[in-house]
Structure formats: structure tokens, C-alpha cells
Amino acid sequence: MVDRLANSEANTRRINIVENCFGAAGQPLTIPGRVLIGEGVLTKLCRKKPKARQFFLFNDILVYGNIVIQKKKYNKQHIIPLENVTIDSIKDEGDLRNGWLIKTPTKSFAVYAATATEKSEWMNHINKCVTDLLSKSGKTPSNEHAAVWVPDSEATVCMRCQKAKFTPVNRRHHCRKCGFVVCGPCSEKRFLLPSQSSKPVRICDFCYDLLSTGDVAACQPARSDSYSQSLQPPLNDVSDDDDDDDSSD
């Protein structure tokens, strides 16, 4: 089915429409063999709060961006190669329902669909695209993924020292290895995580000690399916007011 669509005029038109919606700031998306599988609005759990984002699933990449004018204009385009993607379902929790994790070596985050059926369709299509890509390339699924950042609202105090309270002056930071929200004194060190950055990035003291001794396995990301159920008390750093992919603290 996908192979038949790859060279169809209808598929080319659909991809051109997506390119035009992102405008000159977006990257070209039309390449031989690429097929637009589907699209839709998902709620992305960002650092500050959940936000609506437009997602486009192709047979080899996942693209998303901010919605400026629905179906007409998007900005802040992000492209994720599907061969590096793994996904995990998230348990429903309060108002956050029908969610799953999108995990890659460079970035991981949670998204939520409007209905359980929509969630199932998205996950099934993503898994099939990933499986087909890996089958064609002969590669194995990635077992490394970046931490999913705990949202700012989940931590009123540092999740490491459990003492420092966050204020406009004592601001939140995120450990790039575990995703915890931590205070400045608990995250003064930097460590090179090649899959995330070519420069050393901020990590908490706990992860720094483990990484320095080579105990990488013990330094696990904070969230596997639902961080708020696993942290007592509630227990990224990227500014997420526009979106959440800057590398600032």
C-alpha cells in the first residue's frame, strides 16, 4: 500500500501542502519514496503545561510543529527519524488520558490523543512504520532514549535534595540524564551525552556520580509510564513557552 502511494500525485500534493503550511522556515519534506501516512492534533506534555501540536506521520519520519492557523500555518518544525523511535503507552491519569511516550536518543516526550481509538490508531501506525523501516534497513531497535522531562508543575521542591523550594529567584533546572526537576546547587556539573548534544549538558549530582563511575544502568530516566505515580512526593532544561526544544536552562 505504502509503496503504491509513494509515487502517486495525491501523495505528492499532500506533502506539498504540509511544506507550504510550514513555509520557508520549515525543511523540505518531499523525497522519493516518502509517504504521508496521516496527520492530526495531539496534546504534547511540555515543560510548562500541555499544549496542542500538529503532528504528521510519514513512513520514515514524524514531524510536528506549533499551530498558528489550523490547517493553514504552522511553525517551529521538528523532524524525528522513525528508525530511532520507540513508543510506550501511558496510564490514564486525571485529565491526561489516551497518552503514550515517544522516545528517541535525542529527545523523549509524552503526547495525548482526544480518544482511546485515536491513540490506538496513532500507536499502531507508528509501530508499523518503525517495524517496516527496521526490516528494510536490517537495523535493530534503539535501546537508548533521552529522559522524559518531569513538568515544572510536578515539583515545588528540588527532586534530589528535597529541600530547596523553587521561587522566581531559585529557578528550576532539568537533569538531561534522568529528567528530574532540580535546583541549581544540585545540578552545577556538566557531562557529555553525545546522543543529546555535542557539548557537555547539565545533569544532577546523582547522575554525575553514577556516570563518572560508569554505572550508567543505575541512572535511569524518571518516567517509564507515569512519573507522578512513582515519585514521593511529586518528586527539562528547555524553555517551553514557544516550544520545548531549546537547550537553555
TrEMBL record:
One of the protein's GO biological processes: endosome organization
Keyword 4Fe-4S: no
Acidic residues bias: start-end ranges: 238-249
Bias kind Polar residues: ranges: 224-233
Tree of life domain: Eukaryota
Major localization listed first in the record, in broad terms: membrane
UniProt-annotated stretches for the region Disordered: 224-249
SUBUNIT field: May interact with EEA1.
Name used for this protein in its record: Pleckstrin homology domain-containing family F member 2
